[in-house]
Amino acid sequence: MRAAVITFPGSNCDRDLAEGFRKAGADVTMVWHKETELPKGIDVIGIPGGFSFGDYLRCGAIAARSPICQAVVKFAQDGGYVLGICNGFQVLCETGLLPGVLMRNATLKFVCRQQVLRVETTQSAFTRGYDGSGEITIPIAHHDGNFSADADLVSRLRGEGRVAFSYVDNPNGSAGDIAGILSENRRVLGMMPHPERAVDAGQGNTDGAAMFQSLMGELQLA
Amino acid sequence: MKAKVHVMLKNGVLDPQGEAVKHALGSLGFQGVEGVRQGKVIELDLADGTSEATVKDMCEKLLANTVIESYSIELS
């Protein structure tokens, strides 16, 4: 599996995300936001957490219009796999690859803790490895993770099995307790929790490892 | 020429920051503040002759997220 991880000014989880992919056996290329093309032969793109462009204007708004993101959008539209975590989820919503918006936490407070998630579907390359898991624990760390969508969108996402993860004990006011969603073709996943911070015993939690491993399994077969 | 773009959350979109400002005003003793909505103003210095349609395009493509925000344009 060949992965590309995009780095924007203000990204701060890019190296952790690269490590998550590497631990699952992927070959990772870091890609700077000013690039206009992705490296050849990429199987999956990771958009990391952080505060791209200082969260100016809106979280993820400037990053979503950067040169590399046009290539990311095209890659996704052509059926490529994209994983956006935290700020990466915000960027994916701003590009329109995923619906909804991440707004300020309802509590107005930055929230940083281990969070219990319910795995809502295992029908995706990202979540297949959680078959039978039910609930997992993944760290969260965000100020703007309040997934906002109208009731129609929430019920459509639920109905289509596109809610990948939901919060047990909602930490930020997200509509429908939604923590992560899939695109229509189930190949783009955006989520606020940080699986890359839970891939090694040294991090005190390895519940995130199955995501990278199941991606790896899926993409090697492809 | 200048353009002033006002960006506001659409009606019905919960504005937690506006709510916090409302509560703070209440705790300062201001009575009767029934609602607060917080938005932003973006001032653009533009080449003469820039059309309103161009500014509208800027709003649609970047300045506002029309899923949750509405905008208005003032040219001067």
Key features of this structure:
heterodimer, A: 222 residues, alpha/beta, 6 helices, 25% helix, 26% strand, B: 76 residues, alpha+beta, elongated
Could you explain how this protein is built, in words?
The complex is a heterodimer of chains A (222) and B (76). With 222 residues, chain A is α/β, with parallel strands linked by helices. Helix content of chain A is 25%, strand content 26%. The termini of chain A are close together. Chain B contains two helices and three strands, in the order E-H-E-H-E. The termini of chain B are close together. The mean pLDDT of chain B is 95. Classes of the chains: A alpha/beta (222), B alpha+beta (76). At the A-B interface, loops of A face helix 1 and helix 2 of B.
Quick rundown:
The complex is a heterodimer of chains A (about 220) and B (about 80). Chain A is of the alpha/beta class and about 220 residues long.
Number of strands of chain A: 11
Order of helices and strands of chain B: EHEHE
**End-to-end span of chain A in angstroms?**
10 Å
Can you list the strand order of the major beta sheet of chain A? 2-1-3-4-11-10-9-6-7
Tell me the structural class of chain B: alpha+beta
Biggest pleated-sheet summary of chain B: 3 strands, antiparallel
Order of helices and strands of chain A: EHEEHHEHEEEEHEEEH
Number of helices of chain B: 2
Largest interface by Cβ-Cβ < 8 Å? A-B, 17 and 11 residues
SSE layout and pairing:
The complex is a heterodimer of chains A (222) and B (76).
Chain A: E1 2-7, H1 14-23, E2 27-32, E3 44-47, H2 61-64, H3 67-77, E4 81-85, H4 87-95, E5 101-103, E6 111-119, E7 135-142, E8 146-148, H5 151-159, E9 163-167, E10 178-182, E11 188-191, H6 209-221
Chain B: E1 2-9, H1 16-27, E2 40-45, H2 52-63, E3 69-75
Antiparallel strand pairs in B: 1-2, 1-3
